[in-house]
């Protein structure tokens, strides 16, 4: 979809420039404008992630999502009318608003699902965000082919397609209740929380969940939502923060985007025609979607720790093999086909482990008072990481060639060791139980304090 959009948008920018200034736009300036159109999505997402610490606290999870859908609808309208208005600046603004929508929506979506799901299904429910991201990629690649919407006449509507799910979610959300934990713990609305749980779970026996929320509310009585500074400086969430930052938010540094970049070069070396590349891209996206969907059925059985830890380990090993095979690709004609197989192996491992778990695990790590600010930090690392990788990766490839994968191998192996040796399993545990497990790490040099520590340690500095 991006390659299709690039061709038509650059043509539109050049045409608009001609109408305004009577002279064509030089190629370097046109490429610079396109690069900024691409990069501004990450900056908008960062802005959205920053607001994910305040909007869902002030207005609630549901209203924050409704506001976010309005942002996406406005962005879609800007895309539709950009050609009519002969303004590529509208595309820039639309991309920024799409980014804001993604940055805010992803964090609040995970909060809402994590605070509304029973513990035995929490992993599956929060992982649906990865499933729909993968589904969106595949649908974008499919409708972006020239036989559907990848044409000169249809590109503004192609860029506006994201407004359709925003409208759908806006309408459906009107019938959904607020997140039960937000109502019970933040607002003290016991009756409203119970009604929300009954509506969402379709069960009457809610005693265990209400008792768990009661324990958490007692520990946070009178405490306001924590700030980003609190999360960064407080000892009582130190290991949760490290878990959030290294294997989860830092998933951009595992090399998956680099792999997508290199995949097309390997396809060319294998003799795949240029006009067939788009269909292979659909195949890659479909592979990722299938494996993420499979991960959703495994995560509450195998657990977060094993899926992510061994996933990163296998990614690192496979990328090591791929680096070696890329170095000897000219020795034999069959080696490029092996490299294609290795690319699909890495994508399968990524979908089964790091991709899905990096979305599900953050919802497990923090109690209510800490969660919004924690997602601000997670979103900041994630989106700035994407921005930096996008801006710098070309230079890294130019300097290191296929050996650029060794950087990602180092990150993957380190994240694997961190997950397997330090992070406790969160599968099937309540928020309070998870906090008690992490307190053993946060206060491991103060054994006497650990014995006296209760949930209040997670909310009082």
From TrEMBL:
<feature type="transmembrane region" description="Helical">
    <location>
        <begin position="334"/>
        <end position="353"/>
    </location>
</feature>
<feature type="transmembrane region" description="Helical">
    <location>
        <begin position="91"/>
        <end position="112"/>
    </location>
</feature>
<keyword id="KW-0762">Sugar transport</keyword>
<feature type="transmembrane region" description="Helical">
    <location>
        <begin position="32"/>
        <end position="53"/>
    </location>
</feature>
<feature type="transmembrane region" description="Helical">
    <location>
        <begin position="276"/>
        <end position="298"/>
    </location>
</feature>
<dbReference type="InterPro" id="IPR045263">
    <property type="entry name" value="GLUT"/>
</dbReference>
<dbReference type="InterPro" id="IPR020846">
    <property type="entry name" value="MFS_dom"/>
</dbReference>
<dbReference type="GO" id="GO:0055056">
    <property type="term" value="F:D-glucose transmembrane transporter activity"/>
</dbReference>
<keyword id="KW-0813">Transport</keyword>
<keyword id="KW-1003">Cell membrane</keyword>
<dbReference type="Pfam" id="PF00083">
    <property type="entry name" value="Sugar_tr"/>
</dbReference>
<dbReference type="InterPro" id="IPR005828">
    <property type="entry name" value="MFS_sugar_transport-like"/>
</dbReference>
<dbReference type="GO" id="GO:0070837">
    <property type="term" value="P:dehydroascorbic acid transport"/>
</dbReference>
<dbReference type="GO" id="GO:0042383">
    <property type="term" value="C:sarcolemma"/>
</dbReference>
<dbReference type="GO" id="GO:0046323">
    <property type="term" value="P:D-glucose import"/>
</dbReference>
<feature type="transmembrane region" description="Helical">
    <location>
        <begin position="155"/>
        <end position="176"/>
    </location>
</feature>
<dbReference type="InterPro" id="IPR003663">
    <property type="entry name" value="Sugar/inositol_transpt"/>
</dbReference>
<dbReference type="GO" id="GO:0005353">
    <property type="term" value="F:fructose transmembrane transporter activity"/>
</dbReference>
<feature type="transmembrane region" description="Helical">
    <location>
        <begin position="400"/>
        <end position="423"/>
    </location>
</feature>
<dbReference type="GO" id="GO:1990539">
    <property type="term" value="P:fructose import across plasma membrane"/>
</dbReference>
<feature type="domain" description="Major facilitator superfamily (MFS) profile">
    <location>
        <begin position="1"/>
        <end position="427"/>
    </location>
</feature>
<feature type="transmembrane region" description="Helical">
    <location>
        <begin position="310"/>
        <end position="328"/>
    </location>
</feature>
<dbReference type="InterPro" id="IPR036259">
    <property type="entry name" value="MFS_trans_sf"/>
</dbReference>
<keyword id="KW-0812">Transmembrane</keyword>
<feature type="transmembrane region" description="Helical">
    <location>
        <begin position="241"/>
        <end position="264"/>
    </location>
</feature>
<keyword id="KW-0472">Membrane</keyword>
<protein>
    <recommendedName>
        <fullName>Solute carrier family 2, facilitated glucose transporter member 5</fullName>
    </recommendedName>
</protein>
<feature type="transmembrane region" description="Helical">
    <location>
        <begin position="374"/>
        <end position="394"/>
    </location>
</feature>
<keyword id="KW-1133">Transmembrane helix</keyword>
<feature type="transmembrane region" description="Helical">
    <location>
        <begin position="65"/>
        <end position="85"/>
    </location>
</feature>
<feature type="transmembrane region" description="Helical">
    <location>
        <begin position="124"/>
        <end position="143"/>
    </location>
</feature>
<comment type="similarity">
    <text>Belongs to the major facilitator superfamily. Sugar transporter (TC 2.A.1.1) family. Glucose transporter subfamily.</text>
</comment>
């Amino acid at each position: 979809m991006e390659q299709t959009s690039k061709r038509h948008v650059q043509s539109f920018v050049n045409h608009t420039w001609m109408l305004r200034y009577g002279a064509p736009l030089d190629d370097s300036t046109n490429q610079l404008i396109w690069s900024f159109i691409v990069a501004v999505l990450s900056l908008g997402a960062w802005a959205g992630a920053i607001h994910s610490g305040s909007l869902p606290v002030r207005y609630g999870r549901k209203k924050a999502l409704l506001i976010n859908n309005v942002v996406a609808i406005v962005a879609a309208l800007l895309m539709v009318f950009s050609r009519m208005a002969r303004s590529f600046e509208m595309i820039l603004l639309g991309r920024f608003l799409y980014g804001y929508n993604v940055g805010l929506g992803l964090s609040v979506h995970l909060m809402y699902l994590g605070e509304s799901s029973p513990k035995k299904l929490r992993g599956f429910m929060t992982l649906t965000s990865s499933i729909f991201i993968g589904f969106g990629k595949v649908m974008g690649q499919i409708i972006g082919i020239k036989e559907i919407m990848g044409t000169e006449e249809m590109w503004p509507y192609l860029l506006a397609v994201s407004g359709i799910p925003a409208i759908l979610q806006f309408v459906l959300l009107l019938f959904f209740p607020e997140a039960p934990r937000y109502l019970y713990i933040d607002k003290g609305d016991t009756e409203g929380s119970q009604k929300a749980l009954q509506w969402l779970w379709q069960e009457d026996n809610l005693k265990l969940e209400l008792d768990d929320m009661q324990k958490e509310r007692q520990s946070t009585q009178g405490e306001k939502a924590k700030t980003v500074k609190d999360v960064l400086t407080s000892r009582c969430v130190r290991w949760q923060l490290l878990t959030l930052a290294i294997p989860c938010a830092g998933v951009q540094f595992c090399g998956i985007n680099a792999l997508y970049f290199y995949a097309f070069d390997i396809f060319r070396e294998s003799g795949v025609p240029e006009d067939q590349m788009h269909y292979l891209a659909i195949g890659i996206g479909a592979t990722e979607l299938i494996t993420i969907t499979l991960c959703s059925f495994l995560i509450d059985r195998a657990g977060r720790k094993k899926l992510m830890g061994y996933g990163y380990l296998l990614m690192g090993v496979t990328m090591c093999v791929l680096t070696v095979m890329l170095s000897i690709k000219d020795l034999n004609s069959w080696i490029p086909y092996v490299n294609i197989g290795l690319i699909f192996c890495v994508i399968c491992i990524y979908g089964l482990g790091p991709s899905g778990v990096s979305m599900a695990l953050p919802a497990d790590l923090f109690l209510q008072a800490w969660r919004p600010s924690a997602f601000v930090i997670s979103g900041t690392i994630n989106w700035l990481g994407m921005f930096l990788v996008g801006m710098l990766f070309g230079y890294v490839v130019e300097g290191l060639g296929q050996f650029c994968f060794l950087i990602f191998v180092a990150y993957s192996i380190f994240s694997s060791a961190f997950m397997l040796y330090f992070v406790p399993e969160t599968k099937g545990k309540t928020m309070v139980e998870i906090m008690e497990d992490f307190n053993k790490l946060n206060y491991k040099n103060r054994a006497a304090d650990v014995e006296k520590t209760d949930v209040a340690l997670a909310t009082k500095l």
